[in-house]
Write a structure and sequence with these properties.
About 40% of the residues lie in helices and about 15% in strands. With about 290 residues, it is α/β, with parallel strands linked by helices. Helix 5 packs parallel to helix 7 and helix 6 crosses helix 7. It binds NADP nicotinamide-adenine-dinucleotide phosphate. NADP nicotinamide-adenine-dinucleotide phosphate (NAP) binds near residues 165, 191, 193 and 215.
């Protein structure tokens, strides 16, 4: 039987409507318009597309989205100065730093400098720590979108065998914490994993984010598994994901497509986080 294909755009649409309604209420209550600022370093095609989609979504929801653009060779100190100014600026309710950035800038230093209460992406050590210890507040948007998709499909995670193919700070590490917080049994695969297939082929839920086109073929997948493809790759045949969609959909129970799966939900989750940082600011929470 062919897998159910998850419509990420439909899920994102529901989230956007919820966000727009909440923004309306918050504006009335606090007489302030939520405003976020993105620090953008250099030019990157994938980031630019993501930014454009996020800006459009902000506009529709009634959130002001500003950019601070810097050339690729900007100094670390200049970025740190901007972060410090944005942290102090009461008109700014959320800050995002667009990855990937130049090698001469330490993302650790930037994350340490960012005020956790304005940290829309949930990457500061404080917010990452909260995610890790199960006291989740602002959770990184891509892991949050994976969880949101599973929740929309009423997936009970307790006791499930979950495999995450990715161990980056952006996706795999926070996502495995989210699964552990919900009592799933989690395996994390990466380039040093001896035989990834041995893990993935036993997974009830398989999340993959390698960025290698169609690396996950049907022999990597357990029958009826829920397969979530985070990977986005621009190939000469167009955008595709990690999953060899045509073969895997004949074996999986549920599957997210690329495009139209995790991507739109991630944008919507980013706006959900903006609501949190806005509330942190206007309700004057310390963090
Ligand atoms: N849909 C969305 O919203 C969204 C959001 C963010 C990212 N993405 C996409 O997700 C992908 C990953 O993003 P990222 O920022 O996490 O990239 P990344 O830092 O390059 O992470 C890739 C991960 O995949 C692992 N990996 C690579 N080749 C592998 C292989 N052959 N077998 C097993 N593991 C392998 C890497 O392991 P090592 O660390 O050991 O090298 C690493 O953990 C990209 O395609 C990106 O465009 C999508």
């Amino acid at each position: 039987m062919t897998a159910k294909i998850i419509d990420g755009r439909e899920i994102a649409g529901k989230l956007h409507r919820k966000t727009a309604e909440e923004v309306k209420q918050l504006k009335l209550r606090y007489k302030t318009t939520p405003s976020i600022t993105t620090i953008k370093i250099g030019e990157d095609q994938t980031s630019a597309l993501y930014l454009r989609l996020r800006d459009n979504a902000c506009k529709k929801a009634g959130i002001v989205s500003n950019h601070l653009e810097f050339p690729q060779d900007v100094s670390e100190n200049e970025i740190l100065r901007s972060i410090s100014e944005l942290n102090e600026d009461k008109r700014v309710h959320g800050i995002l730093i667009q990855f990937p950035m130049s090698g001469h800038i330490s993302s650790d230093k930037l994350m340490n400098a960012l005020d956790p209460k304005k940290d829309v992406e949930g990457f500061t050590p404080y917010n990452m720590g909260r995610t890790l210890i199960g006291n989740e507040h602002i959770v990184p948007c891509t892991p949050l979108s994976v969880l949101t998709i599973l929740e929309y499909e009423n997936m009970d995670l307790e006791g499930k065998d979950v495999v995450v193919v990715n161990h980056s700070n952006v996706v795999g590490k926070p996502l495995s914490a989210l699964f552990l917080n919900r009592n799933a049994t989690v395996s994390v695969c990466h380039v040093f994993t001896k035989d990834a297939k041995q893990y993935t082929s036993r997974a009830d839920i398989l999340v993959t984010a390698t960025g290698i086109p169609r690396i996950i073929t049907s022999d990597y997948v357990k029958k009826n598994a829920f397969v979530i493809d985070v990977g986005i790759v621009n190939t000469k045949d167009g955008i595709c994901g990690d999953v060899d969609f045509d073969s895997v959909k004949e074996k999986a129970g549920k599957i997210t497509p690329v495009p139209g799966g995790v991507g739109p939900v991630t944008v919507a989750c980013s706006l959900r986080n903006m609501i949190k940082t806005f509330r942190n600011c206007v309700e004057e929470k310390t963090k």
